[in-house]
Amino acid sequence: MKKIIIASDGNNFPKGAFEFIKELQQHEPVLLVGAFLHSLNFEEFIPGVFAMGAGPAARFMQEEKADLEKCIRLFEETCQRNGIEYRVHEESNNWNINDLAKETRFADLMVMSEELFCTGMNMTEPNVFMQQAIHKSECPVMLFPENYIPFNKIIIAYDGKKESMFALKQFCCLFPQLKDVETKIVYSKAEGSDDIPDMVYIEEYAGRHFTNLTFEKLHLKGKEYFESWTKENNDSLIISGSYSRSGISVSLNKSFVDGIIREHRVPLFIAHS
Q1: Per-residue model confidence as pLDDT tens digits over 135-188
Q2: What are the angstrom distances between the C-alpha of 177 and each of 18, 23, 47, 110, 150?
Q3: Superfamily per CATH, domain 153-270
Q4: d(CA 66, CA 128)
Q5: Rounded CA separation 227/222 (Å)
Q6: Other Cβ atoms closer than 10 A to 67
Q7: What is the third-level CATH fold of 2-144?
Q8: pLDDT tens-digit map of 38-74
Q9: pTM given for the model
Q10: How, if at all, do strands 213-218 and 182-188 pair?
C-alpha cells in the first residue's frame, strides 16, 4: 500500500489526478490524504487592500472557507464511492509552503492538477505556488491535466545527469506494475553526434525495469522538441528530474518542464533529491 497526497486549494479539486488514483487502486490499495490548503492572506502581501474596513476581508475569508469545505466534501464522497481509504488534512489558515512540505515528508507520492493548483492566486502557469510545491516536496510529484486520459507510453527525459537518473529510480520503485508499458528514453541536444551519455550504464539499469524499451537521440533544443512533442504524444507520461534546481538556475533552464505544464496535455512525474 502507498500513501499518496492529493493537494488542493479552494474549490480546485484535481479531478484528473483523482482518475489516476482510481487506476492505482485497481492494482493495489492506497491511502489517499487530501491536503487542503487555504488561500493567501492578501493583507500580508498587499498592505492596505482592506484598510477601508474589515468587510471585504471577512467576505473573502467566508467565501474561501465555503469553497474549501465544498472541495473537502467532494473529496470524501469521491473516495467513498470508489472504495478508497482516505484522510483529510486541512492545513493552516493561510498559505504556508512548509505545511505541504511536511505532508510530503511522510508520503510516497504527491499528485496535483497542472491547471487548477493555486490558480486563484496567480494567473501564470506554472504559478509561483506550484513551483514552490514542486521544489519543496520531499517525495516525487505527479502533475495531471484535468482532461487526463490513461497513458499507454512512458517518455523518460534523460540528460545524462544524476537528477534524471534519480527520477527514473524513484519511478521504478513506485510503479513496478508499469514495466511492460512502451517506454522510450529520450536524450535531446543540438549537436551532430548520435551519442547518448553513459548509454551502456543506463541501458543496463532501465533494461532491467522495462520490457519494451527504446532509445532516441534528438538533435533539437528541449523547448523546440517538447512544444511539438506534447501535441503528438498526448497518450504519454513524461518522467523528469529537471526541477531539482533552485534560484537563478531554474530561471535559465526551467522551460523544459514549464512548457509541458503550460500545455495541459500530458501527465508529468518529477522527482529530485
Answers
A1: 899 999 999 999 999 999 999 988 888 989 999 999 999 999 999 999 999 887
A2: 19, 12, 51, 18, 14
A3: HUPs (3.40.50.620)
A4: 24
A5: 9
A6: 17
A7: Rossmann fold (3.40.50)
A8: 765 444 444 444 454 556 556 656 777 787 889 999 9
A9: 0.86
A10: parallel
Domain with CATH 3.40.50.620 in the chain: 2-144, 153-270
Q: Give residue 128's Cα distance to chain centre.
A: 14
Helix, strand or coil, per DSSP, at residue 269: strand
Q: Strand pairing of 141-144 and 268-270?
A: antiparallel
CA distance 114 to 95: 19
Q: Alpha helix locations (H) across the chain?
A: 15-27, 42-45, 55-81, 97-105, 128-136, 162-174, 199-206, 222-232, 248-253, 255-263
CB atoms within 10 A of CB 227: 15
**Does residue 159 contact residue 187 with C-beta atoms inside 8 Å?**
yes
pLDDT at res. 78: 96
